[in-house]
Design brief:
Length: 191
């Protein structure tokens, strides 16, 4: 919660100094989608957030917003070099094709084998996310062979680091990034 409040406060400052741009989609004066980009320099645009309200997904709003983002970037002569961090749960063939056609390189945020993934990243409904991600891995790697496997390691799963590494290599990942959860206080024993 504190991090969210800090980011919102910073966003106001970024808008004032013109280092951030927000694009919004509205339905009957209700915000249903947002794109938030940072302008890091004259040559780098960082896509921070691209969110469509769950109740409005599948209606083409994201495609319209993407087109508006492309228009804005081209109008302002920013080169396009995009990447995305995704947990992979919402990816399907159409979305993977979209990423490939728009040269958006994904980084897959998955924490390891079934047990580790289910512990770290349950879905909002409480069900596990492993099968959703696992089924997409071959499609993602076929489209993007150099996709990075990014695992968050916390105290409860730090004894599974090697297992996570083995899982990633078995699945075919060449780039593996195992990152300790820096927001968690670590015990001496787990460090």
């Amino acid at each position: 919660k504190e991090d969210t409040l800090r980011r919102i406060s910073n966003l106001k400052e970024y808008i004032r100094d013109k280092s951030a741009v927000l694009l919004g989609a509205y339905e009957k004066r209700v915000l249903v989608g947002i794109i938030w980009i940072y302008l890091k320099s004259n040559s780098i645009v960082h896509l921070n957030s691209f969110v469509i309200d769950n109740n409005y997904r599948g209606q083409g709003i994201g495609k319209l917003m993407w087109a508006e983002l492309e228009r804005y970037i081209k109008e302002n002569n920013y080169p396009i070099d995009l990447g995305i961090t995704t947990n992979g749960t919402l990816l399907n063939a159409e979305r993977i094709d979209f990423l490939k056609n728009n040269e958006i390189i994904p980084l897959l945020s998955i924490d390891g084998d079934r047990k580790t993934q289910e512990y770290n990243r349950p879905c909002r409904n409480g069900k596990g996310s492993f099968d959703l991600v696992y089924n997409n891995i071959p499609k993602i790697l076929e489209a993007f062979p150099d996709t990075t496997f990014r695992a968050t390691i916390n105290q409860e799963t730090c004894n599974k680091v090697f297992d996570s590494y083995l899982f990633a290599t078995k699945m075919g990942f060449k780039n593996i990034f195992l990152c300790p959860n820096a927001r968690e206080e670590w015990s001496e024993e787990n460090i």
